[in-house]
Specification:
The chain is α/β, with parallel strands linked by helices and about 350 residues long. It has nine helices and twelve strands. The termini are far apart.
């Protein structure tokens, strides 16, 4: 079978496999009591990985499908940080010991949207309640535009040694369409600042299928990304779901689309009729998959000695930062976006928790 045959056969929309088991397989039959028993039964010799979700951003990106919101004031952020601190204490109490931790990942949203003192105090609490290994991987997701010198110093005090920079696309027209202006110089300054801080593994997030993208513009973005010498690149397929994420409807329609073909409503077949790159927000460019990560062959990830390409084979893990798939990790969050994985199952808070937290933060 030729490459053209393979493309013709498999170039279609499929469910996003960002996590497994996927969302439709959640069941209310597994509740807090199950989770508590599973936590108590964790073997002491096995280190844990912790994920902390921060559902805030400093700006609204129109393409975004994450569980996040823009908070202009500090009060809701501080209330959330207090809830996160309580969650850390509850988890440590259930475990009944200072459990060994080998990986900590701050995701969101934009974790650096939290006030600096909240970030450092939460990190200090983690080190107090858990036995964080001296060589633990401590990773965080960053919006380069919001990475000020003070915030960079805060990351140093937290012990951050792995970081992910959101790039998405370097083309100015694409950035304007998705509401995310970000120059190459800003991204470069952030990368250099993190390297100087001691970050040994740097990830860049890119997105394909965005409005106004062309094959040439995507190739240019890839070349600029490579110029930053990242240790890992995570490539995501844009999911246009304005019936779920209302702000995506604010993305301007390309001129070649009529109102009836604007893809603002949920498609019955799950497939957009307009497949031309840069024409439709749900169009796609041929890539290895909807969410693929390539670590550098000789980076911190395991090498693929047989590979002669600049990227080795994809390895799937949490937010593109961990060097290997995580079998056991715990989500710390008062928001359903953070999930835990234990005994081959994925556990997530019920949506009602988010409603209660948002009501308290008002």
């Amino acid at each position: 079978m030729t490459h053209a045959d393979l493309i013709a056969r498999y170039d279609g929309r499929v469910p996003r496999y960002t996590s497994y088991p996927t969302a439709p397989h959640f069941s209310a039959e597994i509740g807090a009591a199950h989770y508590q028993r599973w936590l108590a039964a964790l073997p002491e010799a096995s280190p844990l990985s912790l994920y902390l979700h921060v559902p805030f951003c400093d700006r609204l990106c129109l393409y975004c499908g994450c569980h996040t919101s823009v908070a202009r004031h500090e009060r809701p952020k501080r209330i959330y940080a207090e809830a996160l601190a309580r969650e850390i204490g509850l988890l440590a109490d259930i475990l009944g010991r200072r459990a060994r931790v080998s990986q900590i990942h701050w995701g969101g949203g934009t974790p650096t949207a939290l006030p600096d003192d909240c970030l450092t105090s939460l990190m200090a609490l983690l080190r107090t309640r858990f036995d964080v290994a001296a060589d633990a991987e401590i990773a965080i997701e960053i919006d380069p535009v919001a990475l000020s010198p003070d915030k960079l110093a805060t990351l140093g005090r937290m012990g951050i040694n792995r970081a992910s920079l959101g790039v998405q696309d370097f083309d100015e027209a694409v950035q304007a369409a998705i509401g995310r202006p970000q120059s190459f110089a800003q991204t470069q300054d952030a990368a250099q600042g993190l390297r100087a801080l001691g970050v040994t593994s740097l990830n860049l997030d890119l997105i394909y299928g965005l409005p106004l993208q062309t094959e040439a513009s995507v190739a240019r973005t890839a070349r600029l990304a490579l110029a930053l010498s990242p240790d890992r690149v995570a490539v995501f397929g844009y999911a246009h779901v304005p019936w779920m994420k209302k702000h995506q409807a604010l993305i301007p329609r390309p001129p070649c689309l009529t109102r009836s073909r604007a893809c603002t409503r949920k498609p019955r077949s799950g497939t957009c009729s307009n497949r031309r790159v840069g024409c439709c927000p749900s169009a796609s460019i041929i890539t290895p998959g909807p969410r693929t990560r390539w670590p550098r062959p000789c980076g911190p990830a395991r090498c693929n000695a047989a590979s002669r390409d600049i990227w080795s084979m994809p390895r799937r893990s949490c937010s593109g930062l961990a060097p290997a798939p995580l079998v056991r990790y715990l989500g710390l969050c008062a928001d359903p976006a953070a999930h835990s994985r234990l005994r081959g199952s994925r556990l997530q808070r019920p949506p009602a928790d988010r409603t209660r937290l948002r009501s308290a933060a008002r």
